[in-house]
Design a protein that fits this description.
3-stranded antiparallel beta sheet
Length: 262
C-alpha cells in the first residue's frame, strides 16, 4: 500500500495511545488486491483483541495518480474485486457483531456508549461550524466552506475577509441528503421526519394544508419506491422507519439515490 509505516508500527501506536486515552478509534481497510479472507479475519481479530472501542472500516478505493493505480495499470498488481469487497464486508459485520460491537453507521462500529459524537452530528443532520482552511459549516439549510489554500486564507483574514463559498439547499435537496445519511445509520429513515421538508414555513391555514398534502406525498413516494427493496430483503419497514439489512448495506448509495425525490 506504499504506507510510511508497517504493521508493527501501527500496533505500537495503538498500544501507546491506550496508555493515555480510554477512548480511541482505528481505521481498517478491506478489499485490497492481496487481502485474503483469512488475512482479513486476522486483522479484525487483532483489532478486537486490542479492545479498541471504536472501529471505522472502509473498502479500498483506488485513487487517481496513486502508486497503486499505476501498479494496476502496469498489470503489476491485481485490481480491486467488488465481489471480494462485498464478501469481506459481510464477514466484517458478522465478526464484529459477535464481538459486541454495534454497527451504528455503514462504516462505523462501536462498543456500547462509544459512538462517535462528532461524526454522528453529520449523520443526524445537525448544525456545525468549522474554522480554518478547508473547514465546512452547516446551519440546516445552507453549507459553506473556507478556501483550502493556507496563504490565501491567511491573507484574506488579515484583510477582514472570510474566504468562503456558500451553497443554499432547497427543501428537496435537504430531504435527499436526509435520505442518504439516514439510510447509512442503524436507526434508518424516519418517514415522519422526511415528510416535514417543506419549501416554505406555514403562515396560514392554506399553507398548513399544503404542507400536510406535501408530507403525505413524500411518505407515499418513499414507501412506493422502497417496496421492491423490502420485498427483496434489502430493506425493512418497522415503526414508521426504513432501514437497510446487511445485504442492503452493500448497495446503500444506489438505494438512497433511487429514493431521491425530484
Amino acid at each position: 500500500m506504499n504506507r510510511a509505516h508497517n504493521a508493527e508500527d501501527a500496533l505500537i501506536c495503538v498500544q501507546l495511545a491506550k496508555l493515555y486515552f480510554d477512548n480511541i478509534t482505528i481505521d481498517l481497510i478491506y478489499g485490497t488486491p492481496s487481502l485474503t479472507n483469512n488475512k482479513w479475519e486476522q486483522n479484525v481479530e487483532t483489532a478486537i483483541s486490542l479492545h479498541v472501542p471504536h472501529l471505522s472500516c472502509y473498502a479500498l478505493t483506488v485513487e487517481p495518480k496513486t502508486p497503486l493505480q499505476k501498479l494496476i495499470q502496469q498489470h503489476k498488481s491485481e485490481n480491486i474485486d467488488p465481489g471480494k469487497q462485498a464478501e469481506q464486508f459481510l464477514l466484517l459485520m458478522k465478526w464484529l457483531n459477535k464481538a459486541g460491537y454495534e454497527h451504528y453507521e455503514i462504516s462505523n462500529f462501536a462498543k456500547p456508549g462509544f459512538r462517535s459524537r462528532h461524526n454522528s452530528s453529520y449523520w443526524q443532520g445537525k448544525k456545525y461550524y468549522g474554522f480554518g482552511p478547508s473547514a465546512h459549516s452547516f446551519d440546516g439549510k445552507a453549507r459553506w466552506w473556507n478556501v483550502s489554500n493556507n496563504t490565501i486564507y491567511i491573507e484574506s483574514i488579515e484583510k477582514g475577509i472570510i474566504p468562503l463559498e456558500k451553497e443554499e439547499l432547497t427543501a428537496t435537496q435537504q430531504l435527499n441528503e436526509y435520505i442518504m445519511i439516514s439510510l447509512r445509520t442503524v436507526e434508518g429513515l424516519d418517514l415522519r421526519k422526511a415528510g416535514q421538508f417543506n419549501e416554505q414555513p406555514a403562515t396560514s391555514d392554506s399553507q398548513r394544508e399544503d404542507n400536510r398534502e406535501n408530507e403525505t406525498t413524500i411518505v407515499v413516494k418513499l414507501l412506493k419506491e422502497s417496496k421492491k427493496y423490502i420485498d427483496s430483503g434489502l430493506m425493512i419497514f418497522k415503526n414508521n422507519r426504513l432501514a437497510l439489512t446487511n445485504e442492503g448495506k452493500l448497495m446503500a448509495d444506489g438505494i438512497a439515490a433511487d429514493l431521491f425525490l425530484d
